[in-house]
Amino acid sequence: MRFPGSWLCVDVIATRLAAAEDIIIHSAAGLRVAKRLRRADMALGFNKEGRVLFEQLVREALTFGPRADRQSRAGSIEFRTHWVLTPDEVPVGLVVWLGPGPVPPRTDYNSWIMDLEAVATSSAGDDLASIGDGRRVGEYRPIRELLKFMNPDDVQAFLSLYYDARTGPKGIRAEAYWSVLPTGTDQFTHFWSSAIVPEAGALFVHGITVKLAHREYTPQSTRGMITGGGTLVIVDPGTRVPVTVWGKLTDLLADDGVVAELLGQLDIDKISADASALIEDTVTLAGGGRYHASAFLMPTSQKRPVHPLAIMLHTEGGTAA
Questions:
Q1: Which is nearest to 244 in space by CA: 121, 155, 174?
Q2: Average pLDDT in the 85-92 region?
């Protein structure tokens, strides 16, 4: 038999929504797969006998449980499993090693629930600390806090994930690559997050995030907007929820009331109606601070009709905020 020689993560929700014989592989060796096993088996490193054994063992784990990590051996073949459960105990991932040892360390996986009405997430998993916002298992936090250290270049893709989760048909995969740079660190931590929409109009989606060892992508110009010491605020214009804030006024704009002040002084409806519009105005925040604001819609991502709203803030006169 031939096996991949890497940990594979089964997408449990996608597998349960798929045809009876299908197992959906979420990722392998920490990298995105998002395919049916029978379409990806040879690329992953299985021969037919190895794939059939993998299917059998995974089906038994999904059908009979229990949802506890398992370790067993038959001759030279190691079989290990690790369940990825959301805070409300919904299984979203089953991480599996099947093959000869030695068994390498597995990739970290986190789980999450997104409340689509409250625009908030609750998380569990192997390494919540890597997000950098201090969240605890099962604690609902606004999406802004989840993403407050996000690379601004990734906001369009993350809002596309949110849009697909809110509006997509049953079975669609909502997904995004994203990276964070928490305060006090000098290197980004990279992730790929995905969720299968359980039904159209669902209020909650359950998803899984794999922490990436590295990520190759072409930086855009978004972070360059704040090199002059200004502040960049990115908002979902549909819900008026701030997604992320970068720059000098990050602490001030951590207050929801101050963000509401900012949005209330800008003609958001005009921008939403005209994707090419640029609004420039002077705003007053937190009892007296005056700032020059430039607001415009950013490009969409993944051909989804959702355009993040970017607001640049500088002190009056154009100096850094």
A1: 155
A2: 96
d(CA 295, CA 308): 11
3-state class percentages of the chain: helix first, strand second, coil last, to nearest 5? 25, 35, 40
34-73 burial code (b ≥16 CB/10 A, e <16):
bbbbeebbeebbbeeebbebbbebbeebbeeeebeeeeee
Under 8 Å between Cβ of 224 and 311: no
User: What's the mean pLDDT when you consider all of the chain?
Assistant: 87
Give the least confident one: 33-37, 216-220, 237-241.
216-220
Please say if the pLDDT value at position 221 is more than 90.
Answer: no
272: CB partners within 8 A, 6+ apart? 237, 297, 309
Cα(47)–Cα(36) distance, rounded to whole angstroms? 15
- Type of residue at 25: I
- Distances in Å between the Cα of 315 and the Cα atoms of 226, 228, 267, 279, 285 are 13, 12, 20, 16, 11
Helix locations, the chain, DSSP H: 12-17, 37-44, 48-64, 143-146, 155-167, 256-264, 268-273
Q: Dihedral sign, CA of 38, 192, 161, 122?
A: positive
CA dist 140 to 2, 87, 243, Å?
43, 10, 15
pTM across the whole model: 0.82
Adjacent-strand bridge partners of 82: 95
Q: What is the mean pLDDT of residues 248-277?
A: 85
Q: Mind listing the pLDDT tens digit for each residue in 10-29? A: 999 999 998 778 999 999 99
The amino acid at 18: A
Query: Tokens at residue 302, please?
Result: 């993944």
